[in-house]
């Protein structure tokens, strides 16, 4: 299962792949009444108890049980003198919202990686990210940005359950290189069920000094969602 977002040095574009939304399935609700008696000084007072039973049936992965709902894109500021170091340029950015899984354009507010897991299992999932070449077309010629690394960091995530307990959803990732290689940026826990939004990814891109032509370079960020196959 893959989804793409667009990467830009100065201009934002839209993600191109959308996946369907899904909802959970309610299998059965059953009430079983039971009659008991309570003694008192003068008589027997009937009391009744009812027991609720709710069963949830997991959704098969092929029927939308595991869905990549939203992914962020990245828009870097233009090069300035302060970004130059001994080996080239260093850019930093954080994930921004582009489109959701229904293909609806969103505003450019901060955005994490959103996954819905309705399978009802404990295998968890993982999300990998791969940054493709950033290119510029100018004067009929095509130029590639000499990217050295594109490193991603995502803070650990959690939610608070009905009992007030803090439940971890995914571990922290620091400095995962994703340039032209799949880097695992989300590794969920077994408890990461339902719809989970990760912390906002922070990225650092290092670019060499040689062979850069002025202009706006754009490229694609490809996200892949897979079954985690946790023990």
UniProtKB/TrEMBL annotation:
Highest taxon above the source species: Bacteria
Signal sequence, renumbered to the chain: 1-25
Keyword entries, A-Z: Signal
Keyword Signal: yes
Protein name per UniProt: WxL domain surface cell wall-binding
Organism: Pilibacter termitis
């Amino acid at each position: 299962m893959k989804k793409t977002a667009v990467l830009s040095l100065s201009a934002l574009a839209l993600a191109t792949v959308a996946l369907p939304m899904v909802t959970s399935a309610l299998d059965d609700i059953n009430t079983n009444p039971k009659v008991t008696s309570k003694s008192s000084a003068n008589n027997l007072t009937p009391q009744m108890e009812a027991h609720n039973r709710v069963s949830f049936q997991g959704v098969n992965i092929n029927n939308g049980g595991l869905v990549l709902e939203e992914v962020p894109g990245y828009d870097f500021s233009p090069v300035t003198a302060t970004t130059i170091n001994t080996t080239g340029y260093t850019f930093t950015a954080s994930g921004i919202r582009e489109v959701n899984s229904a293909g609806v354009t969103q505003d450019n507010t901060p955005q994490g990686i959103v996954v819905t897991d309705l399978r009802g299992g404990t295998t968890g999932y993982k999300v990998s990210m791969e940054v493709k070449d950033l290119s510029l077309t100018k004067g009929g010629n095509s130029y590639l940005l000499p990217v050295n690394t594109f490193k991603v960091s995502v803070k650990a995530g959690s939610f608070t359950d009905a009992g007030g307990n803090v439940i971890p959803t995914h571990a922290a990732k620091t400095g995962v290189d994703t340039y032209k290689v799949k880097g695992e940026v989300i590794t969920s826990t077994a408890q990461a069920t339902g719809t989970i939004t990760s912390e906002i990814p922070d990225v650092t891109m290092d670019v060499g000094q040689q062979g850069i032509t002025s202009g706006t370079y754009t490229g694609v960020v490809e996200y892949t969602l897979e079954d985690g196959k946790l023990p």
